[in-house]
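TEACHING EXERCISE
Course module: macromolecular assemblies
Task: Read the component lines below, then compare them to the predicted structure of the full complex.
Student: A.B.
Group: 4
Components provided:
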Amino acid sequence: MLDAKIPNGELKSKWSTYQAESKLLNPANRKKVSIIVVGSGLAGAGAAATLGELGYNVDCFCYQDSARRAHSVAAQGGVNAAKNYQHDGDSVWRMFYDTLKGGDFRSREANVYRLAELSAPLIDHFTQQGVPFAREYGGVLTNRSFGGVQVQRTFYARGQTGQQLLLAAYSQLSKMVKQGNVKMHPRTEMLDLVIIDGKAKGVITRNLETGELKKFMANAVVLATGGYSRVFRLSTLAIGCNGSAIWAAHKKGAFFAAPSFTQIHPTALPQSSELQSKLTLMSESLRNDGRIWVPKKAGDSRKANEIPEEDRDYYLERKYPSFGNLAPRDISSRSAKEQIDSGHGVGVLKNAVYLDFKHAIERLGIEVIKDRYGNLFQMYEKITGINAYQEPMMISPAAHFSMGGLWVDYELMTTVPGLYAIGECNYSDHGANRLGANSLLQASIDGYFILPNTINNYLADEMKYDQPDISHDEFSKCLEEVEARIKMLLKIDGLKTVDHYHRELGKIMWQECAMSRNKAGLEKAISEIKELKSEFWKNVKVTGSNNELNPELEKALRLADFIELGELMCLDALQREESCGAHFREEYQSPEGEAVRNDDEYSYVSAWEYSSGEYQLHREELNFEYIKPTIRSYK
Amino acid sequence: MRVTFKIWRQDNSKVDGQFVEYELENISRDMSFLEALDMLNESLVLKGEKVIAYDYDCREGICGQCGVFINGRAHGPHANTTTCQLHMRSFSDNQVITVEPWRAKSFPIIKDLVVDRSALDRIVESGGYITAKTGTAPEANSILIGKEVADLSMDSAACIGCGACIATCKNASAALFTSAKLTHLNLLPQGKVEEGRRTLSMTKQMELEDFGHCSFTGACEIECPEGISISNIARMNFSLLKAKLLK
Ligand SMILES: Cc1cc2nc3c(=O)[nH]c(=O)nc-3n(C[C@H](O)[C@H](O)[C@H](O)COP(=O)(O)OP(=O)(O)OC[C@H]3O[C@@H](n4cnc5c(N)ncnc54)[C@H](O)[C@@H]3O)c2cc1C
Ligand code: FES
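Instructor-supplied answer key:
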């Protein structure tokens, strides 16, 4: 049984109790401690900057050319916080309740409560750092509401919230770089984790410009490497997003939790060709005013504007009257898929549904809509060539967020002592479904507020032991293994490109392990992935050498990991014989087609342990002391 | 569609580079420009050749990592867009498309179309922040900021740091980039406290990095994906004069 180290006492005081009781490290000793932070997105940059301020020596890595570009930059919609500025009845408790319920009771109460609790000070923090959040004319902050909740608790900076939060974090990081407490290593990828005496002690990296492999040692390692949904190839994630760092850690003993919980976002732009490299997200905030519909008649080939009201099916409003177009993401995505699968899809590939602003424009006037969503309408026109003020947008579901990730306890430590995982790459507060605008929040508080308070508890004891040293045998061994793996890839010289294999993997995963799953499909997927893996290692072709900037090699290394991770995702989905949140097993649904959860048998977090190619399941039982799990109905 | 790509190939900053021509067929008009390059790269791999290196990450026009010169214009034929948001429908059948890296003394070429923009990070390191530690913030609504000011600050904060302004400027000046960051922070009450110090050190760093001077031709504003206004440069100059006088 896994111990999540949840502090005793009342829910409301768990975090303060933890802080009061955990060990500290005095400032003089902090100077002697080094910490590696892999990733400089919101989670990583926040952590590196704050640990730097505390006086630790930090090495921070990212694969982009600058820390300012991590994928957090792409988040558009906003960040949640329970401030109740709008006087609409919001509170920490309500946010806690919404989030727990939104995640379909597959997350930990104590973590979710802390998420809600730390949300309000986070807005203060970002405001102080210069984030130009949207304001009222009188100067106070304003909010909007976001998918799945009935209060206005989302703070935003135009359609560029992620960008502004990341730039704030990046600027604080830059300050610490200048001060010398943080050393930033851009264009540097972590390829392996070094473990000495059972504890995380360092990493092996590859300089992406020169190919040089290098050893870095530290007293603790923090992974903040973001989501892995590029396993589907087509997703809303940046092209470079990958699962390699956490996969390396998993293979070295860190448990992987709920790998198959992937959020499929309902409002991406539809795929338009086979060679497409990614899908673009349209902000979910559009659902506040846009109405989603499809033609009532399957295969209706009329243009959107030629279809009269009586021939339109506003299916979300019909099926979920109290939430309508704002129904949570898993429900909206699955409903869209149902419509598409039953022949009601629209667009060239018949893979989309309409998102219509006609009524909103009639009601509010075009200027208001332009003010709220202008940049999104421009982006839509740039990509599709369509003016969405005149005809409805077309949207389609797309892989978007990894709820799963490395298993972490209340301190955000993985099952490997000294190894922490923060932000999207851990499994933590979201459960089986993430509510909109909760991820920027989680990544930020993990990095700024939680980790810098929990890591001391480990380091205080760690100081008593021998300090790590890169001349240790484990470092050399690990480096040689990485080197051998790279050489092997370059030597295969087969007939197919890396992208070819990625497209194949993507098709399998999208078909069998995305919005809905079933036993037969998952079993088929597992055997197909096994075959794909052996094919890949026999027949992939990677040109160029190891000693130069070689984008093909980077892709190949990441894909090799995605293939293995894909298999574990299918295994996890197969093992969980219930439907919950984003995990919809076709065998477990009500006669009306709603997900049927099985709390008696599956109220746990699945955490997988790796050992030489086999996966063993461990369970973290979830105890709901404060909120009784209810059926998640949005009717 | 069929096009001819004329692409700059260069192994690193120490050796010379040259244009190499590639023919590419069966391109769909809806494909993005970078997807066409991906397709070209796949064909190179199958021929056993090294791929062309180019930069990108988000492919959503927001991270600022992509950016090349296409037919003599930063980010291609359209104003105010990024390379990843350019689609092949913007070109005609059989067109010759010339692709070069950003050219600026302060942006050394790393390989092919990839350049080193770390000078921009160093400008930010020199003062592009508000000095406030984690945990020291007052309640957010205790800092009132009118909507107009917040909006103006946001206009400048939207800079994605792609470097198009510098690459397109005949002097390779970083004035638009630096002034955008300064305006974002200097306009806000939280940032105003350090205005003078920030302006002095960031403009100093800009000079140390060997960027050229601004001569107000305005090309930067046209090529900026975010449409950042050159009035920021006037604000920066005003701020700088004020800071020098007060020093
Ligand atoms: C299009 C889009 C829109 C979104 N909109 C919203 C929204 O409106 N609200 C919301 O709350 N959430 C949103 N999200 C989700 C949210 O943006 C992410 O979950 C969050 O930003 C993740 O932050 P992170 O710091 O964990 O990871 P990231 O920002 O992805 O950072 C990962 C970092 O790790 C580095 N890295 C990765 N692997 C390695 C390696 N092996 N070696 C070295 N470095 C490595 C990268 O370089 C990068 O610096 C959105 C996501 C997407 C895709
Ligand atoms: S790839 Fe991010 S802006 Fe083009």
